[in-house]
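User: Fold this; tokens only.

Assistant: Input:
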Amino acid sequence: MSNLTPGAADGTSSGRSTKRSVFRVLGVLLMGTALVLIGIAVADFFAAFSSDEFGAEPTKFWMFFAALPFFALGGLFLQLGFVGATAKYVAGEAVPVLKTSMDQLGVGRYPSGSTGSGPYCRSCGRQNDADARFCDSCGTSMSV
């Protein structure tokens, strides 16, 4: 039987976990930095307009534009860090609905015209009888 855990076969599961953690931490740090810079720029902008001095101008509004690359990179890193969790969530929500819809339509129950009730062939995808030793369609051995 195949192991469906990503990275388990080649031993990279812990490496992926570390990368996800790094992406998540960097994403939060970059987004936090962007929000602080934006906050300073906006506060300076409104402080200049509420000042009693004639001709007062904002001097730190450039920080808003400096924050934009931090904001973009932080968002990218957060997406990379959470892409697996997002994909699992979407699959968990969508697959049962799709399966129910396909069953009601009678589509995909028995690929290639098979009528078996056992395992699917790993070569051609046909469902065979539970006690079949070889695929009814292509002849591939059903043993693992």
